[in-house]
Amino acid sequence: MVRPDGKLTHDIDPGERAPQDECGVFGVWAPGEDVATLTYFGLYALQHRGQESAGIATSNGERISVYKDMGLVSQVFDETILGTLGGHMAIGHCRYATTGATTWSNAQPTLGSTPHGTVSLAHNGNLTNSADLYDRLIDKSGFPSAGEVAQGNTTDTALVTALLAEHPHDSLEEAAMDLLPTLQGAFCLTLIDENTLYAARDAYGVRPLVLGRLDRGWVVASESAALDIVGATYVRDVEPGEFIAIDEDGVRSRCFAEPTPAGCVFEHVYLSRPDAVINGRAVYESRVEMGRQLAREHAVDADLVMPTPESGVPAAIGYAEESGIPYGNGLVKNSYVGRTFIQPTQTMRQMGIKLKLNPLRTVVEGKRLVVVDDSIVRGNTQRALVRMLREAGAAEVHVRISSPPVKWPCFYGIDFASRAELIANGMSIEEIGQSLGADSLGYISEDGMIEATEQPRERLCTACFTGKYPIDLPDADRLGKNLFDVHRSSSAATSRPNRASRASSAPKSSSSDSRTEATTAKNSSCEPGPDSDLESLVLPQDRGSRTK
After folding, report:
1. Chain centroid offset of residue 367 CA
2. Is there a binding annotation on residue 178?
3. Does 464 count as an annotated binding residue?
4. Is the pLDDT assigned to residue 292 strictly greater than 50?
5. 8 A C-beta contact, residue 532 and residue 491
6. Which of 63, 112, 125, 249 is 20 to 30 A (C-alpha) from 414?
C-alpha cells in the first residue's frame, strides 16, 4: 500500500510558498497507560502546528522505539502501528520544515546513542546558532559515522541529538544541563532516555510549553488544548529557562538560564488554537478583543461583518460586537480540499481559491462588507478574496486586519516570506488597500494588539512587526533553511530507512539588516502561517506587485 506523504499536490504556483509556523511537541510519562495512543491524540490536537511529518517515540524502560513518516498524524499512524509502540512514556512531534529539506530523514523524533543508553528528541522552534553547533560537533569528533546526521538529517534537532550523544557526563540530565545554555534562539524540547521524560524551554519563552497532570502521570505539550484532549489537567506553563525531568520520583525542575521572557505575540494573533491558554490568557479572548479594538480604531459604515475562515472568526465576532454591525458567514470553506493525491486538471487549477472558499451570494450580494482577517503577508490571498466577493455581488469590501503590518521575517519559528516579498514593505497602507482592490483597509495598532493580549509589552516578541529582535542574530551566511545540506557526507545514507527505528538500551559507540533580507532564516521545524492553505491556490491575476 502506498502511504500518503502529506504534501499539497495541487499547488497552483509551486514557487509561491506560503508562510509556515513552527512545530508541535508532546510528551507523556504514565505507567499503566497506553502512552502511544495518548501521544497520537495529543499530536492530533497540535496538527495545526505541523503537517509535513509526524512521529512518536516510546520507551518501556529497556528500549526506545520510534515510528515516523511523512504526512498528517492520522495518515502516519493507525491502531496496528500504535500497538507496536509499547512503554510507559512517549514523546511526539508534528513538523513543518525550516532547517533541512522536507524529507523522511528530517522527520522527528530523532534517535541517538549515548554513553549510557539512548536518547530520542523532539523540537519546536528555531535555533539561531546552528552553524556554531555544527562547527562544534565537527571540531569535536569529525563528521559522525553513525546517527541521524550521518544518515542525512540536516536539521538542528539532529545536531542537538548528536551533541547529547557525544557528552562525557554521567547522565543525560547532566549532559542536557551542560548543553542547553549554549543553545541560542527559540526552542521547546521534549526528550526521553530509557527511564525519564525531559522537557526544556528557552530562556526567552518564545514558544509556549505547558505541564499537565494525569491521574497516573504527567504530560507536557506545546499548547494547553493538547492537555484537554488527553484528559490531563493544566498545572502551569513551563518557565523560560526551565528544564524538567519526570520519572518514578515525580517532577524535578532546574533552571539552566536566567529567564528573559519574550513570548511570540503572533501566538495570540494566529499560531495557537483559539482554545489554548497562554500565560493565563485565553487566546480566543485575545482575538475577540483585537476585533473590538480594530472596530474602535477603524470604524466604517457597513451592512455585514464577516471573517476569513477560520482564523479571522474571533476577531470578526469582536468587531461585530463593538461596531453593532451584524455578523455573518459570507464564505463557505471546503476543509477537505487541502491535501489530495490526485493532480487537478488545468480547468480545476483555473478555479483557484474557489477550491477552498466559495462565497454565499445570497449573503453578500448588494452588501457593504467588512472582511476581517488576522494578517496580510504577501496580499495574494486577500486580493483573490476581494475579487471573488465582488464577483458575487458585494457592493463594498472593507478589509480589516487584527494585527499590524508584517514587515520583518521571523527567525524564531514562523516561516514568513523574505522581507522583500512582504507587501507592507514598499507600500503605504492606502496603497496596499488599492492593490487588494478593497474600498478601505485598516490594521490594528501595535498598542491595540498588545493591550488585547493582556501581556506586558516587555514580555512579548513583536519582531515581525517592529524589526526589534530580542535574541541576537548571526550573519546571513550563518542562517538559512538549507544551511547544512552542503555539509552532507558522501558516506551519509542515501536510501530511506525503515520508518520504524528501534534502539536497545546498551551503549553504542559513535565515532544587521542584511540578516533580515535572507529568505526565511529558520533552523528547526515549523507549522503553516497565515493563509498557508489558501496561498497556493491563488490565481496569477491575483498576484500583485509589491512595489509602488
Report:
1. 36
2. no
3. yes
4. yes
5. no
6. 112
The answer to whether 255 is annotated as binding is: no
- Beta strands 460-461; 263-264: pairing state: parallel
Residue numbers annotated as active site: 23
- Asked if residue 311 belongs to a known ligand binding site, the reply is yes
**What angle separates helix 156-165 from helix 130-141, to the nearest 10 degrees?**
40
Distance between CA 86 and CA 402 in Å, rounded?
45
Mean pLDDT of the chain: 84
How many other CB atoms are there within 10 angstroms of residue 541's CB atom? Answer: 10
CB-hemisphere CA count at 13 Å for 286? 28
431 or 345, higher pLDDT:
431
Q: Which domains does the chain have, with CATH numbers?
A: 20-269 (3.60.20.10), 284-452 (3.40.50.2020)
DSSP for residue 270: I
Q: Which of 34, 28, 41 is nearest to 89 (CA)?
A: 28
Give the Cα-Cα-Cα angle 309, 314, 317 (nearest 5 degrees). 100
pLDDT tens digit string along 245-275? 999 999 999 999 999 999 999 999 999 999 9
CA–CA separation, 334 and 311 (whole Å): 14
Query: Is 264 marked as a binding-site residue?
Result: yes
In tens, the pLDDT along 462-497 reads 999 999 999 999 887 777 655 655 444 433 433 344
